[in-house]
Amino acid sequence: MIPKSVLKALREQIRKELYSAYYYLSMSAYFTGVNLSGFAHWMRKQYQEETSHALKVYDYIHERGGKVILESIDKPPSEFKSPLDVMTKVLEHERSVTASITALYELAVREKDYPTQIMLDWFIKEQVEEERSVDEIVNLLKMIGDAPAGLIMLDRQLASRGS
Ligand code: MG
Fold it and tell me: How far apart are the first and last CA of the chain?
C-alpha cells in the first residue's frame, strides 16, 4: 500500500507533468506561429515526453494497488515574447518540477516508502538531463542575440530531435 500522503503527492505529480505537457504544447504552437518549425518540433517532443512522465506515475500508482484520480489542468500561457523568453520559461519550469520531485522524494523517505523512492530515482536522473539540455539552448540563444542566421541554424539543429 502506498502511504496516503505519498499517494496524494503522486496524484499531484501526475497533474504537474500533464500541465508541463500542456505548457510545452502551447509553446510549440507559438513556435509554429513564428515559422520556427525546428523549435516547434523540439517542443512537441517535449510535450510527448512530459505526457510519458505523467503515465509513468499513473502506472506506478496502479502497480501498487492505488487509485488514480486525475485533477484539473490549468490553462497554459499562450503569449510569448521571443525564443529566449520561451526557453527561459522552460528552464524555470523544469527547476520547479525538480523541486517538486525532490519534495516528493523527501516525503517518501519520511514515510519509509522505499518502492516510491526507487521509482523516483529515475525522475531525479531525468531532471538533471532536462535542466542540462534546456540550459544549453538558453545559453546558445543568448549567444545568438539578434542574429537571424544563428537562430535559423539552431532551428535546424532542434528539428533533428529524435525523442
Ligand atoms: Mg517531466
Answer: 34
The CATH number assigned to the domain holding 75 equals 1.20.1260.10
Quote the ligand 1 centre to 147 CA distance (angstroms): 31
Indicate the pTM of the whole model. 0.95
Q: How far is CA 70 from CA 5, 78, 129, in A?
A: 16, 23, 27
Task: Please tell me the distance between residue 141's alpha carbon and the centre of ligand 1 in angstroms.
Answer: 23
Distance 20 CA to ligand 1 centre (A): 7
**Phi and psi angles of residue 118, each rounded to the nearest 5 degrees, phi first:** -65, -45
**143 CA distance to ligand 1 centroid (A)?**
27
Overall domain count for the chain: 1
Domain range for 84 is 4-159
Q: Which mean pLDDT values do the consecutive 10-residue runs of the chain (163 residues) have?
A: 97 98 98 98 98 98 98 97 98 97 98 98 96 97 95 96 84
